[in-house]
Queue: 4 jobs
Job 1
Amino acid sequence: MFGRDIFSPEGLMNILMTLPGILLGFVLHEFAHAIVADKLGDPTPRSQGRITLDPRVHIDIVGFILILIAGFGWAKPVMTNPRNYKNLRRDSILVSIAGPLTNLLLASAFIFLMKIFNYSNAFSANEQLQDIIGNMLLFSAYINVVLFSLNILPLPALDGYHVITNLFNTWKYRIFNILEQYGMFIFILLAITGILGKILNPIISFVFNILIRLFL
């Protein structure tokens, strides 16, 4: 996210201001998957200790570092057993969308908090502190829009892909078999070549601008 300026004073400050949003985004995203699966009859997340807000349970250190330096990353995925659902297709979709929707709600909440903060003038006597808190809320909102936008993409291992495969009989289409086999390679290739950014950036801008208009 901060590129080669990550070790500059400004870059380090940006990271510190982004940490709350990233931690909440990752933890609540995975917690949402776990709790929805649990409520729909799958005991797997509970048996694996995922019904918790403890960051240590949900954070994947590699994915956490990557989102700081590259703008995309991941947490530890919640394992589920769809055979425990009463309605396989419907419940699988509900579990899949729970994570991204949580990030969207978080982004909305951070932007709304910005509005309250701006109107309150609580730290007007200390402009530096006011700027830090304002930027922290802004960065936290933005990172959760990034997580939402990334996860709705129809690429294997992402929530958007699970929604698509449950909505349609994807076994009929060869393209989905190819995606399953080479999904991670395709994802890395898209990221390295910059194509992923070109796909993501318009989505991020669109969603972020809508939230700003609605809540700020």
Note: The chain has nine helices and no strands.
Job 2
Amino acid sequence: MLQIVSQSNICFVSMVESGIKPYNIPFNFGFDESYIYLHSGDEGKKMDILKSNPEVCIAFSNSEELACQDENVACSHFMRYRSVLVWGPVEFIEDPDEKISILNKIMVKYTGRSDYKYSSPAIRNVKVFRVSTKNMSGKVFGY
């Protein structure tokens, strides 16, 4: 399943506002075998929701491709895909060195580099959080 996560460019994080209203937004991310890593500014709707209800579901999908059994029959068309869901509580990271380590994991995913410099104010102000991969499921359909 981590191969599907690795091949995904973004993930979609679902959360619940005020216990009843779903809210879903795209994130870039980093990961390892134990966690999905995310980051954000300290303010805004998503942070308000996560602080009041840290339970999330993270969706990854890739290799989407239209396929069909008969080109002339609409209902024979379907999408092939590979997907993974990860769910659990967000854990906020406060330690500056751990934040830097996690931000580097995110940067490695997108740039292949981990030699970035971070200012003290940037590290102090960024919110870094993770979700355990203990609760993870995946599906491959049509391949």
Note: Residues 43 and 72 are 51 Å apart (CA to CA).
Job 3
Amino acid sequence: SPFNATRYHSLIVNRASLPDCFEITSETEEGEIMGMRHKTLPLWGVQFHPESILTDHGKTLLGNFLKLG
């Protein structure tokens, strides 16, 4: 589901260099990768700040992540 997230940088993942072991889980409307996960290991990453008060549903995102542990 789409939501607004806050970025404090201009870093992005180069889609062409992303290893096959990663799956893209979220991206911007422009196609910039904002989230990914490893296909077989318990590894996740995001390119935004879920803890920011400017990110919609940030507490829910962090809570869901903690439930995975």
Note: The chain has a mean pLDDT of 87.
Job 4
Amino acid sequence: MKVAGIDGTSNGWVAVVLQGGKVAAVRPFADFASAIEGLRDTRFIAIDIPIGLPRTGPRQADVLARKRLGVRGSSVFTVPPRRVLEAADYEAAKRIAAPGRKPSRQVFGIREKILQVNDSPLLDSRVFEVHPEVSFCEMAGEPLPSKKTWNGLWRRIHLLAREGIDLPKDFGEAADARPDDVLDAAAAAWTALRKSARRAGSLPDPPETLAGRQVAIWF
């Protein structure tokens, strides 16, 4: 059985594909549609992007993920309502947002990817949301140091290897991907593997329903 984890990059997406629990491929994709088409033979696809947008207040998934990560909780962005993400620019988004709930620049910076995924007709039951830091926290039993540090980077590589996910030294066509993006995709793939074995947990449990969609961060 194949599963995959996907993380956003500066010019698209990168996927880590597992087969039999081992790394089968690391692949770049230009957009979500091409990723889904390229991964059509995978059973589960875990993606590091919000799936399910709130109408008003924060999503339970984001609140619970921040609480779970403690001091690393700031790595979880609060997902704003669709109307905020669809604003013409960041200044307009701040004006549209509810008082005291202006979007972060980080989440507004990935709004095109968020809308690309949430509006896609290819978003099917195979695809579910993860947050890599929540997945790594589950692996380690505690929040990890920033992946921007050597200790944080190395601990993530070690944890993945302990789980049987040994990343190759040569990523081939994905060689230009940033190390942290590949690690995040690998953590997402780990969660996809857990979901295939019915061992994955979710925040919240059970998932919240937003606009008819089951919304949760899986780990």
Note: Residues 179-196 form the longest helix (18 residues).
